[in-house]
Amino acid sequence: MSSQPPNPLPALTNLVGFSERNGCWFAEEIPLTQLAEQFGTPLYIYSKRALETAFAAYERACFTLKGKRRASIFFAVKANSNLAVMNCFKELGAGFDLVSGGELDRALTIGAKPSSLVFAGVGKSATEIRQALTAGVKCLNVESIAELEQINRIARELSCRAPISLRVNPDVDALTHPYISTGLKDNKFGIAYHEVLKTYREAALLAQLDIVGIDCHIGSQITATAPYLDAIDKVLDLVTQLKKEGIILRHLDLGGGLGIDYGPEDPPAITEFTTTILDHVAARGFEDLEILLEPGRSLVGNAGILITRVEYLKHGASKNFCVVDAAMNDLMRPALYGAYHSIVAVQQQAAEPLTYDVVGPVCESGDWLGKDRLLAVKATDLLAILSAGAYGFTMSSNYNSRPRAAEIMVDGDRAFVIRERETVAELWSKERLLPK
Ligand code: LLP
């Protein structure tokens, strides 16, 4: 996860879809001031071009020099589950990595093919397993023997077969924030490395299961390639061993996790990174394995921003505060992980630049969006919080009875509402008073 960099901050460059022109920020061809005027704030804005560009960067690496597909993209819906965003990826040819019945319903709602869906998660309920088997997903990624038995029982009930893969915990340090590191032996995820072969043998004895693959996911916002190569080596050793025992796997799912540039970091570029890991698998002689990738953040993170209006400037005893109308309920990452997001003034102002903590109106000191930011702003100005397209809206909440923000997708010089702003009345529409 991002550490807090020094001030003045490194400017976030190479953004596709968002740019500054003569002191004014644009989403593709539309000034952000115009979008704020039209749709209000706080407002999530996505660039279609940025989604397409990131997807194309993955696709470039997904083919061999001879033009044969060697890997496919299953967008991790948890990063951004808006139907319009998912639909863009579907149109580009993506499948989806799902972790709940809700995400599965979203994928089916946009008409995704069941064969393009993988269903993961450490605690799938019986209802969700039933839902996934009934839909006919490509694979369930399984994390324990107890879950294998549960899937086998439900498949018997439904008189169907259950395609499964085991999620390996390779005990590799992804060198990221502890909350989003998932491949260490202390993490709750996956099957302990030394238990994996035994678990496959047990799976092979369960009548309704079709063993189709193996998977691992070592964490998120990873900015180094080496941990992936270590994890891949460990997983491929298992594939070799299983083959000797007559358990032939069809696919290898390498999870997601590639980091993005939030300002201070320098992650590998999507195409180079993906080429490196795919070449690594091929070099070990596993060309026949179908490879699945589950990127989330690297497809949408830098394709979205959150714009917010300055309510007040407040000069405290030791700090200046820029109080804005977005809060931790809109973008939780700073409060939860201490995550860094670049913040820029949407329109250059003549105001005196001062160092501010950018904070929201929620009643918690943890409600901050940026610390020690040099900004030239005055009340009513707009700020853009960059790199908010992944785990932004999806992690937002109604804390303090704040309706969730609207979401807009910009395509060239056109803007579309892809989620209306919630109304306050919607917040209690499912609540009931006790009878008198
Ligand atoms: N596959 C699996 C099994 C995952 O658990 C995840 C993310 C992904 C794929 C996608 O990873 P990505 O490419 O987006 O890194 N809320 C946190 C991130 C949590 C990631 C959870 N798992 C954040 O805001 O940084």
Provide a short characterization of the protein structure:
The protein is α/β, with parallel strands linked by helices and 436 residues long. It is 28% helix and 24% strand.
The beta-strand count equals 21
Q: Regarding CATH, which class of the largest domain?
A: Alpha Beta
Distance between the termini: 51 Å
Number of helical segments with 4 or more residues: 12
Count of individual domains: 2
Q: Which architecture of the largest domain per CATH?
A: Alpha-Beta Barrel
How much of the sequence lies in strands comes to 15-25%
Biggest sheet statistics: 9 strands, mixed
Named once each, the bound ligands are:
ligand LLP
Shape: globular
Under CATH, the homologous superfamily of the largest domain reads Alanine racemase
CATH topological fold name of the largest domain: TIM Barrel
List segments where confidence is low: pLDDT < 50 over at least 5 consecutive residues. 1-7
Kindly name the structural category. alpha/beta
Helix content: 25-40%
Mean pLDDT: 94
Radius of gyration from the CA trace? 23 Å
Spell out the key features of this protein.
nine-stranded mixed sheet; TIM Barrel; 436 residues; alpha/beta; Lyase, Ornithine Decarboxylase, Chain A, domain 1
Describe this structure in words.
The protein has helices spanning 32-39, 48-61, 83-92, 101-109, 126-135, 145-157, 196-205, 226-244, 270-283, 297-300, 333-337, 424-427; strands at 18-21, 24-27, 30-31, 43-47, 71-76, 95-98, 117-119, 139-142, 162-169, 191-192, 209-215, 251-253, 290-293, 304-315, 320-324, 343-345, 354-359, 368-375, 382-385, 406-411, 414-419. Strands 4, 14, 15, 16, 17, 18, 19, 20 and 21 form a 9-stranded mixed sheet that branches. Strands 5-6-7-8-9-11-12-13 form an 8-stranded parallel β-barrel, surrounded by 6 helices. The chain has a 3-stranded antiparallel sheet with strand order 1-2-3. It has 2 domains: 18-47 and 301-427, Lyase, Ornithine Decarboxylase, Chain A, domain 1 (Beta Barrel); 120-295, TIM Barrel, CATH 3.20.20.10. Helix 9 (270-283) links the parallel strand 12 (251-253) and strand 13. The protein has 436 residues and is of the alpha/beta class. It is 28% helix and 24% strand. The site of ligand LLP has 22 residues, from helix 10.
